[in-house]
Amino acid sequence: ASTNGFSVEAPSIRGNTGIGVAGVTLKPSARLPPCFDLGVQGYVGKRKGATESLLMRIEFRSAKKRSGVISAANPRKRPRRSV
Q: Given phi > 0 = left and psi -120 to 50 = alpha, else beta, which region is 77?
């Protein structure tokens, strides 16, 4: 094949490719927010190589959830307006 007067290789779909992925999540303490994700990807075949990744994630959660529900046994008192 050629383009603009230059010869180029004809495209081919022959060959094999393999991809492997592995990862792990590390949480040092249940009470502390940081969490670490480690990962690696490997490629074999015509194109070979590897990719590594490291991600640090911090999640903050409220220690006490507030409920918007008013109990019938203990309703919230509202101040009365005097006329």
A: beta
- Which tens digit of pLDDT belongs to each residue from 32-59? 888 899 999 999 987 789 999 999 988 7
Rounded alpha-carbon distances, angstroms, from residue 17 to 9, 45, 58: 20, 5, 36
Query: Residue type at 18?
Result: G
Rounded Cα–Cα distance for residues 42 and 19 (Å): 6
Where residue 65 falls among pLDDT bands split at 50, 70, 90?
A: low
57 contacts 34 by C-beta, under 8 angstroms: yes
User: What backbone torsions phi and psi does residue 38 show, to the nearest 5 degrees?
Assistant: -115, 135
